[in-house]
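User: We ran a pulldown and think these components assemble together. Before we commit to crystallization trials, I'd like a predicted model of the whole complex to look at. Sequences follow.
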Amino acid sequence: MNGYAGQILRIDLSARRSEKSPLPDELVRDYIGGRGFAAKLLWDEVPKGAAPFSEANRVIIASGPFSGLFLPASGKITFASKSPATGGYGDSNMGGHLAAELKYAGYDAVIIGGRASAPLVIVIDDDRIEFRDAGKYWGKGALISEKMLKEDLGEDFQIATIGPAGEKLVKFACVSHDFGRQAGRTGIGAVLGWKNVKAIAVRGSKTIPVYDQEKAYAKGRQMYEVCFSKPGFKEWTPEGTAGVTDWVNEVGAFPTRNFSTTYFEGHQDINGSALRTRIKVTDKGCFGCPIPCGKYSRVKFGGKETYVEGPEYETIALLGGDCALTSIEDVAYANYVCDELGLDTISGGNVCAFAIECYEKGILTKERVGRELKWGDLESVSYLLNQIANREGIGDLLAEGVRTASAELGGGSERFAIQVKGLEWSGYEARWAPSMMLSYMTCDVGAHHNRSWAITHDVATGRDSLTGKADKVIELQHTRPLFDALGVCRLQWVEIGFELQHYEQMFPLVTGMPYDWKQLLKVSERIWNLTRAFSLREVPGFGRQLDYPPARFMEEPVPSGPAQGKLLTRDKIDALLDDYYKKRGWNADGVPTREKLHELGLDFVAEELATCGRL
Amino acid sequence: MKLATRDELCSGCRVCQMVCANENFGENNPKKGVVRIVAHFPDPGRYSVKVCDECGTCQSVCPVGAISKNDRGALVVDETTCIGCLTCVEACPHGVMMTHPSRIAPFKCTLCGRCVEYCPRGAIYDADAKRA
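Assistant: Here's a predicted model for the assembly, 747 residues in total across the polymer chains.
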């Protein structure tokens, strides 16, 4: 099958068995790859009502038709599961070299089910599938484990690991790879931990067939040449995503002290320039990437050198501004702590900031926490991260995420538990950015920015107006996740203005399928409705009531900085949601209508939702 | 053409391997690329790039004389003469006489220059052109 490796690998951990099957034509036709494969496979394979931590839940690892091919940044892979953080559809994607390697080994997707009786490593070496005892790696950090596995298996293996946080079922445990890339969000590291999977190691030697090799190769060369010709090619790379830090502050959208305000006075000490000039060792690229955003850094604490990939922007926002850390060195160290423990830096920073605010307000006490907590204090943050990853003391509660923690702690802390659907908010405060706010509210996995990064649209088109915002969010929610289905990074398009038409031209050359961009966007809309339906099926009460932001964003005007005085009151939030649902073809509770599902070829979803009483 | 590297510029993206395999084998498979990247992580956090400098060791150790120059001046392996003994692979000082499970004969750089052209970072360059 052109553009694909052609096989799905299914692993039953309980039976320590694996099985290969041909990639189904209709899965390719209707869902393309990556996140599309993940959504459909989860829908089909996870029985309704299965607990996230259960043998019945699955972890899906899926690449796309562009993954591993000769075109810019073709290294994206999706990890998906029924999320322990939200109870609904969860996925997270990462770069690095795993997607490409998995395809060279002969697999477009891996479906991991069951539960191993003892910790193991899944080794995929071309056709050979092996389960190795993971006793010596269990309890070890995610980075250390990867290093040990490279020594044990060979440098040419591409390896995904979990850290202690995944083993201890922290709801925001991530999957780590290539010493610094993470599938960070929605707690998939914890699902692997529950299943006793410490690592997945992959090595492949096969060739990925493409429909028209000669033309695809020529198009690939042209795509690189176009990237090389963009002004951003040289300008953007030196700081990568960290370079946006100043701008986000200038527009009053920077998470600061648990999102209490949106401008951080010390942002010049944790920005891209600080990263580039003070701690960066090298640029570190994912597979095929011409503009590597990965910044590999070194910091010295207590006479000991620490290496970490990052901090990238999201980490700077959540561990930096949101916890008020005052130097790029402190942020980098906290980044390292998260990476080694196997914690998502976004949720990790958000949860720490929440705990510090609780402490400040007397909701958490020194006795309960075990020490003082202070803004801008690396020791406070580092202490909390370790407590969380090991589920010790207050960490056991914080490991559940801010939604659960605030419900338990009370004292009005729900107001400043900054999350949607149980997933902690990422790096853009949105009280003065209605389309960004709507993006977070309606993101299928919870409060994540990457489905629709709409803040530039707000700034460009008027931040006090609600007009046209829902349209833009929907457009972005189809365009951006399409990259996750294709298995390619979106940053060439987002950051240096690489045109979408190139992907459209490449798709038929690679796959032989005559889809134009509009048809590909239709597939993306199908996937979007399917992931929404998955959560409607799985989460009691899912729908409009879980699309609201925290009360802080609707009731507390921004107290300082460029966005001072701004907020989006509940009536505005409702107006945004009404407009969005209508334009999506969903009802007022945010449920896709039968007509919309039919239009998207999702009649089987309509039937299932009717059975559940949701349609 | 003489390939040379600036290791400190490499970001480990493997575009060199991909363009090489596409150019020389018509395949999407970096395992058939003849540039070798060694990643030194987690510390000290850098890459080494290994390319063929046409030193001639492979030719001198080949027991059957299967290695000779192509019209670009690159030493290449004649598959029909090669007996697959892999002596050249062991002897190559840079580890860039390559093997692949799908092939009996090893293979190496043909001096096509695509890696120089498409390395996004300028980490591989033509030392002759630089002198010129």
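The mean pLDDT of chain B is 96. That may be worth checking against your pulldown data before setting up trials.

User: Thanks, that helps.
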